[in-house]
Amino acid sequence: MQLGSTGIWSIELRMADPSEIADTAAELDDLGWGALWFPGLGGGDILADSERLLRATRRLAVAIGVASIWRHPAGEIAVGHARLQETYGRRHVLGLGVSDPAAAHAAGHPYRPRADMGRYLDDLDRAPAPVPPAERLMAALGPRMTELAGQRTAGVHPFMVTPDYTAAARKQLGDGPVIAPYQAVVLERDPAKARAAARDFLGVFLGMDHYARSLLRQGFTERDLAAGGSDRLIDGVVAWGDVDDIGARLRAHHQAGADHVCLHVVGAGPGMPLPQWRELAALTA
Hints:
Layout: E1 6-9, H1 12-15, H2 18-31, E2 35-38, H3 46-56, E3 61-68, H4 74-87, E4 92-97, H5 101-106, H6 113-126, E5 136-138, H7 143-152, E6 155-156, H8 163-173, E7 178-179, E8 182-186, H9 191-206, H10 209-217, H11 222-225, H12 231-237, E9 238-240, H13 243-256, E10 261-265, H14 274-280
Parallel strand pairs: 1-2, 1-10, 2-3, 3-4, 4-5, 5-6, 6-7, 8-9, 8-10
């Protein structure tokens, strides 16, 4: 799995006008980014969205961050992934998530995260065109899911975590498994404006039980999770400031054991944050 050290995570790279997505992806490839990540959102034709990015680029990896196991049957994902790998030079990375109890119940199943993910990985292994463990990652947060990811996938793609979390994951996983954290960033030097932009995006996630539990395990408190997140929490999971400030957070993750960090620009207004991506491309060197 070749992700490079730094990538971009973007909703716009899935949801914007297709021609704009293709043109932007080609430029990002030329700028030196290692991987382009996009979210699973509510399902949809996620493999077609991967292919749009793969077709527009020559070198970088395209990663789903992440596909819900409740919305994408393993057999269909395996067939589509195999075709993309054969067609585009094995640049596709399949990120998988077990989502939350509501998603499982909507699919008519009880929610047993570790067992559910284990069965899905079994199905990928047994598919006519199996997805190799080296080509899949898990959105693991807790220690049991992290353990499973280290045993049966290339590694982990955790959301809303600090460099201290990265260090703990590296200690648990040891050498070898990939750690590729998501990192929200705000290119804004004014603390009040930067934190407001971060809260606008992250506030909804603080009310989701699995993310709240992850943050509590990371040492934050219930008070930190209230009212859109305390300054301490926002500063811990969001990097804000100028490019040098963002670079310092990026280095902190890498020094803690991350192999790759994908940056999600928030607070930039509607549309593609292409000016910010161009500015941040200095961090790919």
